Amino acid sequence: MSEIAGQDSPATSGDWASVRRVHFYVSDLIARDIEAFGIGVPERRMFEALHFGEWVSHQDGVSVAAICEMIPERPAAQTVASILDRMHTQGWVERLATKSAGPHGGRLWSLSPGGREVRNEYKRIVEIVLQEVYSDATNEERAALLDNARVAMQQRHTLLAPVADPSAPSDTPTRNNWGALRATHFYINDELLSRAKRLGVEVVERRVLDYLAFADDRGASDGVRLPALSAMIPGAPRLQTVESVLERMMLWGWTEKMEDAPSGPKRQAVRWRLTPRGHEIRVGYNGFAEVTLRQVYTDGGSTDRMLSLAAKAEQHRVLRILPIVEAERRASARTGAGDGADEGGAGEADG
Fold this sequence. Notes:
Blueprint: H1 2-5, H2 14-34, H3 41-57, E1 62-63, H4 64-70, H5 77-90, E2 93-95, E3 108-111, H6 113-133, H7 139-164, H8 178-198, H9 203-217, E4 224-225, H10 226-232, H11 239-251, E5 255-257, E6 271-274, H12 276-299, H13 303-335
Antiparallel strand pairs: 1-3, 2-3, 4-6, 5-6
Helix pairs in contact: 2-6, 2-12, 2-13, 6-8, 7-8, 7-12, 7-13, 8-12, 10-13
């Protein structure tokens, strides 16, 4: 998967676009739910790397150097150590007093008992999200989905096990269950995050780009107001946070205001939309996302069933977000872009 994921932004394809949209939507739902624990992407990566490293090596503790190698963009050791220090303050990880420094050298880190409890809890929540999104699957589609997860986990093991333990076997079997699908989702997502970062697209920018594009595709060509955009994003981030991201992306030429923003609360009435450059950026990361997803699901077989399942799962996304966009379209038709007379309905459909 790494080879194909590294290619430069090929053109997107219709069927796999659905798989990509569902993947990102699931990512946003998961982020909404595990952020309640204070766990963002950096912390989640540490949880997973520490667990995987100890599981593969059958030993306590993983070095910072090994963790860096397990993360696709290869973060600096100082960055990883800083995250671990923060997690240590939370009581989630512990430093091991040991003479052995492991195959990569350096201090060893392990999940604390409290950290293992937190990981078990967010694992359970993530698997509930996955089952909810794919609840309309037939037995055959569900079997194809979980079998693809099993194959992807074998790929992950082959690539990463030697990092954690050079003597680890490359053919450790994995199960086709919801836990494997959860781990597969995290594995793919880390590859996609790494590639998107090269375009300057972090998680928060990707969310704003995607939901503005959804609104535009569904007829909100006059743009979207801050309350509506916040409501579209799972977790409904604070308006100030969304506005800050939009302003930053406007400096890059990715977004634009439909009119100059007034001061005070009336800023919320201003509509935002993507620029042509913003749409180009989306085409870039959507392309490599679809190539990566196609690689995983083609290797797993049952491709037709996977595409059928993605089309069904996408309805979960559309049904949640579309009422918000339709409220924006009605408000624009009544009051004109940016008038802001119908603030109340924009956020009510968020689930």
